[in-house]
Write a structure and sequence with these properties.
Structural class: alpha+beta
Number of helices: 25
Number of strands: 25
Largest sheet: 7 strands, antiparallel
Radius of gyration: 30 Å
Shape: elongated
Strand content: 15-25%
């Protein structure tokens, strides 16, 4: 028995306990933690054994929380701490405790239906009720009248009345429900890890002069692996020999495979389409670029959605009402059994089983379609979205612009201009940098190394190349450095007229050139906008840091009435705040560094395939593959998930109402009442898990290629 510090960042601490211990003492532990000055929120999940503590780091230090935990553990009879080992790799393990509980309570239920001596049956039933009684005792010790007290009271009353089958059935359904939730969580986590590499995946590892197939999970940093055509890279690394075409859309957004040779970086979850390469492993598992996204989702997996928290509060608040109705029903029918039947008519099972199963199943289903949703609350917000805001470059456009023209305004040749611009953009991976690098490669220009680069996000870069002061970027950057742009006025107007974007280059304080970059609208952008309108969005908006004219051309081609251009990153975030102030629920779709502020400001930030690392960190939803159809798919998944939750609550409400209405007249007995109220919820949960791999609906947007 042990607990461990599972995760720690400034302002947040996650502790993992043995699940059985936390189920018995979790409420007392949470109450003690909430009493600490500086603790903002405490969220416990008894099924996974996780306790998340959000705190103000200016009021409370992490070691203060740890000391308080140790004191509370001693008082509560808790397990000793186990330090988290350095470099520990995340692994998904099945939660065996709920399975054991489900098997044990099912066996007790079977015993009540078999010719077993009554005394033995009574002992088995009472033993199966012990966890519920301990939870109720803990609640009463804190002077709380909640669902645990109601459940324990019902079980004890059923046992006292010798309704052993009904008592065993109630305990069994709870245990089965807990197992279904735990199993759904485990399945979802395994699906997330399969995004990096399937658990049973094998790769060829170089050992001396030969290669040997090994499990991906055994790889270590420094290993050299060989990956051939059709195989997926299981780790981030560096090519040491060989050449191959690698589909890197998940990480860079490039639709076409790129050539990778010795010295180039490659990423986990990308695929070799042609050729063979030997790769030195640099990062594995959750430390890879895509693994960090998975880790962020796992951190949020134990959070409760607002609708689940509401259902739990409703179940606890209605305990007094349920007890009163039970007493009234027993009095009217002159039957204690009628009152006992009413006691089980609460929302506890729906809150504990139906809601989390529906939500986690939807997150799992989304991951199977390469949509990573960072937690239940994100899914809930996504279902409420009524305004979608798109960034332009790399989101609505292909994000792979080409340099179509170079206008010169000084003595430098085109090749010298390309050399300087490529050197300045070399450290970056955004679409403009890739366009310049492609042009330099096509012309066979050797690009020099740059010692220092100062980036102005949303504006451009400032560097020194060969003792020359070089500015590359937008009109706003040039004006900030008082660069005269009058010679480029006609060329700039001509570029804007065709929807192209100008990129200015200044050397030693004088305008040297203007590069014209032409991007293309994504093939699926018009269909995606149309699909969003069909889903009754209040508005679909385009934002861009680009000049107004290219933005207008794109907006008009998509039929968008609202579009904003010449925006800095903080301007985009401010516009999102204004939309939220109007009562909109906003989803921001973007891919670049300059979108990170807006992605974080929106109710839901969505990073498209190949987004910059800072964008995927800031986003709530990360699309690994596919086009803009995945944005529509994510919305549909979320809406269907919350609709399923509401159906579950509706079924529970109708079942409870039916029991309360029939019991006083003697038409609802305990077993029938339990099956009607709790059995339907567990059945709905099982149905949700069985549908996890299905596509959401026939309403989904189909891609032009039919996929």
């Amino acid at each position: 028995m042990a607990y461990e510090i599972a995760h720690s960042v400034r302002g947040r601490l996650r502790v993992r306990y043995p699940a059985p211990w936390l189920r018995r003492r979790g409420s007392a532990l949470e109450s003690g933690l909430r009493a600490l000055p500086g603790v903002r929120a405490v969220t416990g999940n008894p099924l996974t054994g996780s306790v998340r503590i959000d705190y103000d780091p200016f009021q409370l230090a992490e070691h203060g929380i740890v000391q308080a935990l140790e004191q509370m553990n001693e008082r509560l009879g808790g397990p000793p701490p186990v330090p988290r080992p350095a470099g520990r790799r995340g692994r998904v393990a099945a939660n065996k405790t709920p399975l054991f509980g489900a098997l044990a309570t099912t066996s007790v239920l079977a015993a009540t239906l078999l010719p077993v001596p009554p005394a033995l049956v009574a002992g088995l039933v009472l033993a199966s009720e012990v966890p519920s009684i301990l939870r109720a005792a803990s609640a009463l010790g804190r002077r709380r009248l909640n669902g645990d007290v109601l459940e324990a009271s019902t079980l004890l009353l059923l046992t006292a009345r010798r309704h052993y089958t009904a008592s065993a059935l109630l305990t069994c359904l709870r245990s089965v429900g807990e197992y279904v939730v735990a199993r759904t969580v485990v399945t979802a986590r395994r699906s997330l890890h399969d995004v990096i590499a399937p658990t049973d995946a094998v790769v060829a590892r170089v050992e001396g002069d030969t290669t040997r197939p090994v499990r991906v999970r055994t790889l270590r940093v420094g290993d050299v692996i060989v990956v051939g055509a059709g195989e997926r890279l299981p780790a981030d690394g560096t090519v040491v020999r060989g050449e191959a075409l690698v589909n890197q859309q998940t990480m860079t957004g490039e639709a076409l495979p790129v050539e990778r040779r010795a010295g180039d970086s490659v990423f986990a979850a990308t695929t070799v389409e042609h050729g063979e390469i030997a790769v030195r492993v640099d990062r594995v598992g959750l430390d890879t670029a895509v693994g960090r996204i998975v880790r962020a989702i796992e951190r949020a997996a134990d959070e409760k959605s607002d609708i689940q928290a509401f259902a739990e509060r409703l179940a606890d608040r209605d305990v007094g009402r349920t007890l009163g109705l039970a007493a009234l029903g027993a009095g009217m029918s002159r039957s204690i059994d009628a009152g006992t039947a009413i006691l089980v008519s609460d929302y506890g099972m729906a809150a504990r089983v139906g809601i989390p199963t529906a939500i986690v199943s939807s997150i799992d289903r989304a991951s199977r379609h390469d949509i990573l949703i960072k937690g239940p609350r994100v899914l809930e917000n996504l279902a409420r979205v009524d305004t979608v805001v798109f960034d332009k470059t790399g989101t609505l456009t292909v994000g792979a612009p080409r340099v179509t023209r170079i206008a010169r305004y000084g003595p430098l040749s085109e090749d010298e201009i390309v050399r300087l611009v490529a050197a300045a953009e070399r450290p970056f991976r955004h679409p403009v940098a890739r366009a310049i690098a492609r042009l330099a490669a096509e012309r066979g220009i050797e690009v020099p190394e740059v010692a220092t680069t100062a980036e102005r996000v949303g504006l451009g870069v400032e560097v020194r190349v060969d003792d020359a002061h070089v500015l590359i970027g937008s009109r706003r950057l040039m004006e900030a450095h008082e660069i005269v742009l009058r010679p480029a006025a006609a060329d700039e107007a001509a570029a804007h007229a065709v929807g192209a974007s100008p990129l200015f280059a200044a050397v030693n304080g004088r305008l040297a050139a203007m590069l014209v970059l032409q991007d293309e609208l994504r093939d699926d952008a018009p269909e995606a906008v149309q699909a969003l309108r069909a889903r009754q969005m209040r508005n679909v908006i385009l934002l861009s840091g680009d000049h107004a004219e290219p933005s207008r051309v794109i907006a008009e081609s998509l039929g968008l009435r609202h579009h904003y251009a010449d925006l800095l990153p903080e301007d985009k975030a401010r516009l999102i705040r204004e939309l939220k102030a109007e009562g909109r629920v906003v989803a921001m779709v973007g891919d670049g560094v300059n979108d990170a502020l807006a992605l974080g400001e929106a109710h839901v930030g969505i990073a498209v395939p190949g987004g910059a690392e800072v964008a995927t960190e800031a986003a709530d939803v990360v699309l690994l593959r596919g086009g803009l159809d995945r944005v529509v798919l994510a919305l549909d998944l979320a809406r269907e998930s919350i609709a399923g939750v509401r159906r579950t609550l509706g079924i529970a409400a109708r079942a409870n109402l039916m029991v309360v209405g029939l019991a006083p007249f003697g038409f609802a007995r305990p077993v029938a009442s339990i099956l009607l109220t709790h059995g339907t919820t567990v059945a709905a949960a099982l149905l949700n898990t069985s549908q996890a791999g299905r596509l959401v609906s026939s309403k989904l947007l189909h891609r032009p290629d039919g996929s």
